[in-house]
Specification:
By secondary structure, this protein is mostly helical. The chain has one domain: 434 Repressor (Amino-terminal Domain), CATH 1.10.260.40. It is globular, with a radius of gyration of 13 Å. The relative contact order is 0.18. The mean pLDDT is 86. It holds the Pfam family HTH_31. It comes from Corynebacterium wankanglinii.
Length: 89
Amino acid sequence: MTSAQHKPRNKQGKPASDDPVLIALGEQIASRRRASGRLQQDVADAAGVSRSTLHTIEHGGAGVRWEKVVAVADALGLQVVFAENRDHS
């Protein structure tokens, strides 16, 4: 069976870290991927990263290189931007 015949599972995994920022980022990326109907392997291939790296990103894991996160975001039509945190102004 090819990946085009599979549908993404709408499965929530356990966060890989306790960092709420990384967890929120990963949730946004996973949500976008699922909404587009794409499998982790398809997005990972398009971004030039391993499926396990994408899995780590989606679960808020630390230690992933920024350029890989940006590549995944780009493969999903997302842009990484920084906004002022008004709580820390």
